[in-house]
Write a structure and sequence with these properties.
The protein is mainly alpha-helical. Helices cover 53% and strands 9% of the residues.
Length: 351
């Protein structure tokens, strides 16, 4: 490709999550890329599913594994070409462009925020002190564009082979913990409640899996079982247990990244900012040090309501009144549960 100016392979910081220190370099591939392609193309679905745990090894899912293998393929095939690897962290909604807070999927923290906001998700296996390495998608794309410019400007066909790697994350530039994430989501989520709330906001994080498991039984499984039984009694199809099965599958994937800490090198991104002119820094805004988290979360919660839950701002007064009613129902239920617990203890213990 004689006219190729720059080629950026978009990976993820967590492609190398089996290493606690993630440097800006390509790590040895966990599997040979060509062999992995042959395996997936030639094995039937059942056999592939059975051997997947062996293929994964220490990797938490196929997404991170294939991203890591993909980096090895890029390195092997990039000789003599202006190629680089761009590794974003956990990508969430836009910060400013093209409009603030735009989002079109429920992946990762956004799904957690939405599910907690409507009152369905009440517990998560997560360490509140761990860094939530999230980045707004528009800032991520701007940095990707700047990285392509830098690769094109610095590429020398006859020069030594060194594949540039860019780790783009907020951990070192503008850190925020999962506890901060929960607090900000609750604070600004309460400003933009949705008319689609099923219950009042009651969301907690548990670092230890045993506590999380107990909380999920008490606040997810048992209430869902009661509701489904009532639905069956009135001739309707049960649905809440099935919904929580999907929710638990989703949160199990996220808990791996929400209970561990990584040291992430971002030297290339820091140098990138210094190489940009003031005009380019404004036009391609991607400096995470300038990210205002309160401003972001205020629009983030509003965007989830508008673009994901499809709830226009015109319903906000009705949604606030609905949330107030759910609050009182929530308090009454807690009082009834406390009374029932005291009664059971009184009956069981000899006095």
């Amino acid at each position: 490709m004689p006219r190729l100016k720059a080629l950026l392979h978009v990976s993820t910081i967590y492609a190398n999550c089996v290493h606690k220190s993630i440097e800006e370099r390509v790590y040895p591939p966990a599997l040979d890329g060509e062999q992995l392609i042959q395996i997936t193309q030639n094995l039937p679905a059942g056999a592939l599913e059975r051997i997947t745990p062996d293929l994964l090894g220490d990797y938490p899912n196929t997404y991170t594994l294939t991203k890591q293998v993909g980096e090895g393929v890029v390195l092997a095939e990039s000789t003599g070409m202006p190629v680089a690897i761009f590794r974003p962290a956990i990508v969430v909604s836009t910060y400013r462009e093209p409009i603030p807070a735009w989002i079109n999927n429920m992946y990762g923290p956004t799904g957690v925020t939405a599910a907690a906001g409507v009152g369905l998700l009440r517990t998560l296996h997560c360490d509140a002190r761990v860094n939530a390495n999230i980045v707004p998608v528009d800032m991520c794309v701007n940095s990707l564009i700047v990285s392509a410019w830098e690769v094109a400007a610095r590429f020398q066909p006859a020069g030594p082979l060194e594949l540039p790697v860019y780790n783009y994350g907020s951990t070192s530039a503008q850190p925020i913990t999962w506890g901060d994430f929960r607090t900000a989501s609750r604070t600004f989520g309460m400003q933009y409640p949705t008319i689609k709330c099923a219950w009042y906001y009651s969301f907690h994080m548990y670092k230890h899996y045993a506590l999380y498991y107990l909380a999920s039984l008490l606040f997810h499984v048992i209430p869902a079982l009661i509701v489904d039984v009532l639905l069956l009694c009135v001739g309707k199809a049960p649905r809440l247990l099935k919904a929580y099965k999907k929710i638990h599958k989703f949160t199990a994937v996220m808990s791996y990244f929400a209970t561990q800490e990584w040291s992430i090198e971002s030297t290339a991104i820091e140098k990138q900012q210094l190489a940009m002119s003031p005009q380019d820094r404004r036009l391609f805004f991607c400096d995470l040090k300038l990210l205002d988290w309160p401003e972001f979360f205020q629009s983030y919660c509003k965007g989830i309501r508008l673009y994901l839950l499809q709830d226009p701002l015109e319903t906000l007064p009705a949604a606030q009144a609905h949330l107030d009613r759910l609050y009182y129902a929530h308090q009454v239920l807690k009082g009834v549960a406390l009374w029932a617990l005291i009664w059971i203890v009184w009956r069981l213990l000899p006095f």
